[in-house]
From TrEMBL:
Binds 1 potassium ion per subunit. The keyword RNA-binding does not apply. Residues 11-219 form the YjeF N-terminal domain. Its cofactor is K(+). It comes from Mycena belliarum. One of its GO terms (cellular component) is mitochondrion. Its main location: cytoplasm. This is NAD(P)H-hydrate epimerase. InterPro entries: YjeF_N_dom, YjeF_N_dom_sf, YJEFN_prot_NAXE-like. Belongs to the NnrE/AIBP family.
Amino acid sequence: MTFRYLSARLAQQIDDELMSAAGAFSIGQLMELAGLACAQTLAKVYSADKHSRVLVCCGPGNQGGDGLVAARHLSMFGYKPTIYMPKPGSKEIYQRLHTQCSNMQIPTLESDDQALRTALKSSDVIMDAIFGFSFKGPIRAPFDSALPLLTSSGLPIVSVDIPSGWDVEAGNEAGVGLTPDVLISLTAPKEGVRLFRGQHFLGGRFVPRAMEEKFQLNLPAYPGFDQIVDITEVNQKL
């Protein structure tokens, strides 16, 4: 039995239930667990001795918060992350996560394209935490110029939950999204990534069994104490 792919509506419903009185998770807890899974995925594929310089690209929403958490963990894993967030989130939790990164002496780029171009020349790998499953096109400034720069850099890209620019259900149908080498789906894979053919991991070892059964997610078993599981072969058979 293969795992279930989520529509935008179902993904939001699961998130809402996780943070309801029944699920009892806070948004901060979920970001911490998701960001840890993202950092572990990058570390699994790209070792710190060869890919230490990580450019973590964060959008203004919860996806960007996951990226900030990942940057902090990557720093503790021995990497040298730099944060790019041309449009910082306005919520207090986002600002607190950014302060935590600053306290770890993780630099943040200026928001202009020239700063991004310069940073790309001195980076080894990109973490894409710009847009989440609620994204609806078209891509607007400042990200409309940033995404082509990330693509043209030729650097390997690790995307969080769904590649930025992809529709959660239609995928990269418009052809404007990033083409990552690695994808870390959170909670469960989304409909739009069925055709993704890179290395694919699942993170989100926080879904209660009762909720997994209720939504018929059919999640794979996580190995040992890892926060991620490789689902590449399962995804590519579909």
